[in-house]
Amino acid sequence: MALAHSLGFPRIGRDRELKKAQEAFWKGELDEAGLRAVGRELRARHWQVQKEAGIELLPVGDFAWYDQVLAHSLSFGVIPERFRPASGKPGLDTLFAMARGVSGDACCRGTHAQPLHALELTKWFDTNYHYLVPEFSVDQQFALSWEQLFEEVDEAHALGHAVKPVVIGPLTYLWLGKLKGSDAQGFDKLELLERLLPLYGQIFQRLAGQGVEWVQIDEPILVLDLPQDWKNAFERAYNILQREPLKKLIATYFGGLEENLGLAANLPVDGLHIDLVRAPQQYPTILDRLPAYKVLSLGLVDGRNVWRCDLESALTVLRHAHERLGERLWLAPSCSLLHSPVDLAREEQLDAELKSWLAFATQKCAEVAVLTRAVNQPEAPEVLAALAESRAVQASRAASPLIHKPAVQARLAAVSAADSQRASPFAVRIGKQRAVLDLPPLPTTTIGSFPQTSAIRLARQAFKQGKLSLGDYTEAMHGEIRHAVQIQERLGLDVLVHGEAERNDMVEYFAEQLDGYLFTRFGWVQSYGSRCVKPAVIYGDLSRPRAMTVDWIGYAQRLTDKVMKGMLTGPVTMLTWSFPREDVGREVQARQLALAIRDEVLDLEAAGIRIVQIDEAAFREGLPLRQADWQGYLDWATEAFRLCASGVRDETQIHTHMCYSEFNDVIESIAAMDADVITIETSRSDMELLEAFEYPNEIGPGVYDIHSPRVPDTREMVKLLRKAARRIPAERLWVNPDCGLKTRGWAETEAALVNMVAAARQLRKELA
Ligand SMILES: Nc1nc2c(c(=O)[nH]1)N[C@@H](CNc1ccc(C(=O)N[C@@H](CCC(=O)N[C@@H](CCC(=O)N[C@@H](CCC(=O)O)C(=O)O)C(=O)O)C(=O)O)cc1)CN2
Ligand SMILES: [Zn+2]
Question: Which domain of life is it from (predicted)?
């Protein structure tokens, strides 16, 4: 009998209970016992949901406070010196301090006099999930320091569940971390492996003692281009771990194993999970290479997108696999369902036809279960019914007039190379722009959003529920814009923004106004910590029926004599942070989006807006995991940006913004986007990025981290600016935070910006 399992379920809860509880805890409105109770209820509910859907072996360890990589750091005692509690034993306050940083004054229980920087936050492979980067020291010691996994296993057992604990494997964990400290230069973090492995031994022994049979060890780095010493380390590590108890399933996802396939297949463990959604081509080879004793888990239900599984085509693979593997065949979603919204059943207002094409995490578990049933009992009536339904859905989608729009396709076909080229080169444009804009050296600005207060969100909620009229909602948002403009004038910022109060999210806001997108009411997915996004779904050809931002930004510009920067989201980011179509390529969807945004840029210019920022925060994230696929992506991604940015006059200054990115791999392409100014994230990594950042146009390296409530002081920002000015000529430098301020409160925002403006003024003096 084949077996249905799951690699992980979303932890946020269908009503984002975890988000709400954590935020209440941080505000002091919920105590620790209350917070823990919410976690326990969510785990119990999620196991139950998966079990009812037909999943036989349930994951434990997919629940985490804030982030699952952070939970591993606590487990292993990877707690940087600055966060180490006096008692020696880390608690939830330690965990949240590592995640969020601590202000010098408003610090946790008064134990720290100094402000503490949070761990670095970065994206999890090519997803919109962000993890906290483990910080290693050269003399790093590891010690089991966190009981959560064991407690949760007991909890699941007490509820009568058959479970499979999930851990991040030792190689992936080390790969994700960073060495810190002055002695780190020249030290290879792989040298920490020998010290780390005994911890896995201890964990496996404890789990075995609790009656666990299988453990899932996630090693997604096996789908990356790995250096030879890392490949060797895989063999070494798992040869050592072989001695330990428990059956081990190594899980790989987000891509194909390719040249690591032989390595992965032959590791001395008991099973291997592969992603057949992202990399279907690896299926036949893996069958030939897998030792006869091993379980093979096939990920045929897409954990990264919301389309219903084509059961019929999944079954052709499965029937074959079942013949070869029999009991050794397992089925699962392609990856953890962390990246899927929770439950489609809640979307009562969705168009019935569109809804019938979709599946969220709960439905995906049922798909895995029905596929398993279909190989175990092919004639079961429910199997036949599910197959018939799946065939009907596929047919309805293929033929639907909702998808194909001849006018959009014709416009795309008519695009020429000249459409993606500014009229003059940067050297010419910048002179004209400086004449029009009349800005001081080191101009100060922000990235776009100001605090999304609960008053703003409640007003929008009331408006969406029909309890607030359009007129009253507009007036409320105008009030927010006036407030933002007044504050920026008072702070003495040079280039103002309207603050994005009217936007629920920088992607969803535009998606709601474009044809070809559908959006959900409850389709939340965790992005980082307590923050969630509700990715919209691209189901058909995309177009812009009318202007989307001109009224708001025009209103803001009329309030001030200063330059008002218009704010848009770029095509690559719109695509990357949405659930895309799969019947046409990503590049087609990006170009359709580019044309829609191009029209918006031109409308803003016509309305008198002199600077337009087109955010491409997800540009790096869209980069394929394998280097062989990079150039193809970079070509169409840069072209899409240029297509939306190149319609304007020389005098109109185009900005772009990117955050959290390892840019060095893509720096040439970023330059090829030819934005006049780029603002980037650099502060958490101490301007390290600028070492290699040869950007030919103007650049605003972020001088403070907006993900932490900590208020940066002027001195530290001056230091960062001096460092930046050593790398980049001052006449090309801008001064700005790392990213938008929507997640911050007003008090800390104003305090931080006062200091930032003071830092810019000081640097102007120093450099004059
Ligand atoms: N899509 C996307 N990806 C991104 C980013 C981004 O901005 N967007 N930024 C980077 C970091 N990721 C982030 C992701 C989310 C948030 C964020 O602030 N999310 C908000 C939700 C934003 C939103 O959609 N808000 C809606 C709905 C708000 C809401 O919860 N309303 C309440 C009612 C009001 C209330 O009680 O506050 C409800 O419906 O129950 C709105 O403003 O309209 C949150 O989790 O809190 C920030 C950064 C990388 N990836
Ligand atoms: Zn950003």
Answer: Bacteria
Alpha-carbon distance of 183 to 276, in angstroms, equals 42
Distance 503 CA to ligand 1 centre (A): 9
Q: 22 to each of 12, 35, 62, 93, 505, how far by Cα in Å?
A: 10, 7, 17, 12, 21
CA–CA gap between residue 427 and residue 420 (Å, rounded)? 18
Distance separating alpha carbons of residues 598 and 648, to the nearest angstrom? 9
In the predicted structure, residue 107 carries a pLDDT above the cut 60: no
CA of 12 to the centre of ligand 1 (A): 13
Mean pLDDT over residues 628-633, rounded? 97
Asked if residue 365 belongs to a known ligand binding site, the reply is no
pLDDT at position 664 is 77
3-state secondary structure 129-170: CEEECCEECCCCCCCCCCCHHHHHHHHHHHCCCCEEEEEECH
Nearest C-alpha neighbor of 397 from the set 535, 537, 275, 589: 537
Protein residue with least CA distance to atom 44, ligand 1: 531
Amino acid at 203: I
**Residue 5 annotated in active site:** no
How many CB atoms sit inside 10 A of residue 469's CB? 11
531 labeled binding residue: yes
Q: Phi, psi at residue 204, to the nearest 5°?
A: -65, -40
CB under 8 Å to 742, separation ≥6 — which residues? 449, 450, 451, 452, 500
Question: Per-residue DSSP letters for 324-390?
Answer: HHGGGEEEEESS-GGGS-S-GGG-TTS-HHHHTTB--HHHHHHHHHHHHHHHH-TT-HHHHHHHHHH
3-state secondary structure 48-71: HHHHHHCCCEEEECCCCCCCHHHH
Residue 446 to residue 487: CA distance in whole angstroms? 12
What's the average model confidence in pLDDT over 12-23? 98
- Whether this model's ipTM surpasses 0.95 comes out as yes
Cα 328 off chain centre by: 34
pLDDT at 31: 98
Token pair 């500014």 in the structure block, residue: 422
Q: Which ligand is nearest to the CA of 448?
A: 2
Q: What residue's CA is closest to ligand 1, atom 40?
A: 461
Tell me whether residue 364 is annotated as binding. no
With a 6 Å cutoff on the Cβ, whether 461 touches ligand 1 is yes
Residues 696, 654: contact at Cβ < 8 Å? no
* Closest ligand 1 atom number to CA of residue 531: 45
CA dihedral (572, 573, 574, 576) in degrees, to 10, reads 80
Q: Which ligand is nearest to the CA of 504?
A: 1
Q: How far is CA 638 from the centre of its chain?
A: 21
615 labelled as ligand-binding?
yes
pLDDT averaged over the chain?
A: 95
- Is the CB of residue 633 less than 8 Å from the CB of residue 623? yes
Distance 668 CA to ligand 2 centre (A): 20
- Measured distance CA(117)–CA(127) in Å, rounded: 25
**Residue 418: its pLDDT value, please?**
96
Distance of CA 733 to the CA centre of its chain: 28
Bridge-partner residues for 495, per DSSP?
445, 563
**What is the residue-wise DSSP string for 73-120?**
HHHTT---GGG--TTSS--HHHHHHHHH-B-SSS-GGG--SS-BPPPP
Task: Say yes or no to pLDDT of 108 above 70.
Answer: no
Q: What is the pLDDT of residues 609-619, one digit of tens each?
A: 999 999 999 99
State both tokens at 180.
């810190």
Backbone Cα Rg of the chain: 26
Q: Is 521 in the pocket of ligand 1 (CB under 6 A)?
A: no
- Nearby residues for ligand 2 (ion, Cβ within 5 Å): 617, 659, 739
Average pLDDT over residues 13-18: 97
